[in-house]
Amino acid sequence: MKIFMKIIFYTAVFLNIVTLSGCSTRNKYKGEVIKEPNYSDVIVIKDGGDKEDIFNVHSNQLVKNGTVDHISEMVYDTQKSVYVYLVDKNKTPKIGNKVVALYGNTKSEIKDFFAVKDIKINPSGDKIAYRAFNSSSTDSAQGMKVYDLKNKKYIELKSKVLVSGNLYEWLDDHRIIYYGNIEGQRNSDKVYLYDLSKDSEQVYLNDTRGYCMYFTTIGDDLLFSSRNQDELDLYYYNHKTGQFKFLSDEFEQIYDSTVDSKNGCVFFIGKNEENIESLYKFTQKDGGVNRITYDFPENIAEYSGIAQSKRGDVYFVGMVNRGSGEDVFMYNIRDKSINIISDQEGIYNIYKEK
Fold first, then answer.
1. Do 126 and 157 meet the contact criterion of CB atoms below 8 Å apart?
2. Residue 138 DSSP code
3. Please, which of 25, 30, 89, 343 could form a disulfide with 105 given CB 3.0 to 4.6 Å?
4. Would you kindly state where each structural domain of the chain is located, as residue ranges?
5. List of residues 6+ apart from 90 with CB closer than 8 A
6. The domain defined by 250-354 carries CATH number 3.40.190.100
């Protein structure tokens, strides 16, 4: 039995980014002064009402770094001077009514849709993928879009695949993979690959062992979950050998993850059969899945993000007790400790440099 996710949208209205912190460069096309942000490799945004406070993360502390307006989602690359924001005045969680991109020393906006979400950037920082909608109806989904930031234009994909939700990831600068099916074609639920450099599509993973609910990439390999009737199974797929490894059937859902490709591991937020959200770690070498958090924090915010810093520490949002306000937590990979690094409770979201 396949399970389909429903998404509720609210009316979004136009509003621009007002303030960003950092040094300024001039837009050579419009003469507009653009403030290039000065972000750390992990940042935290706290909902402050009219504006959101932005914090750089320095090990076990948050350092305030200005404010932003109505940011619902963001991706960035400080080395390439690329910053892409989803903006929404109504502050609908994780949904924007326009994309604002700072690319090099130019600023551009994309707003030919009603709503947009789940933005993902390629390694070079010159292309983004996201899913867009024409109205508040879930039937208005336009599917996955790929946009060239450098040339300020869409890249048309010669594909008939209907991409399922946010199940798409960049493999490298020119290759993107996605899970979906071809309307009217039986047994077409697969993971597909599109090579932009060749303008061609092919099947990447033929059998997902059920209806794919989540996946992330570790190099060319996949960590993914599939629902088969009422059971959710977690697998690791080695693309080179074509072999699957069954990992667990003890999850009800996997929400978000951050990948440490260098060390071959994935940290993810998952809900177990007891409906408890916790932080987990998958290790590619031995195929182990280990639970990291138990009673502290008592609960983890599923949709507030997860990020791993260059030092290796993992950051996430949680509640010390169910029903309490949110705090920002750090998992120290050296001493295996869990630490609160926020000074006060609030509504937080975590983002990581690509």
1. no
2. G
3. 25
4. 8-117, 250-354
5. 10, 11, 12, 13
6. no
- Residues 6 or more apart whose CB falls under 8 angstroms from that of 337 comprise 331
Give the C-alpha separation, 64 to 61, whole Å.
10
φ/ψ of residue 283, rounded to 5: -115, 120
pLDDT at 33: 55
Would you state the torsion angle of the CA atoms of residues 268, 271, 274, 279, taken in this order, to the nearest 10 degrees? 30
CB 276 within 8 A of CB 233: no
CA gap 86, 17 in Å, rounded: 10
Pairing of strands 82-87, 71-77: antiparallel
Q: In the block, which residue shows the tokens 């910053």?
A: 83
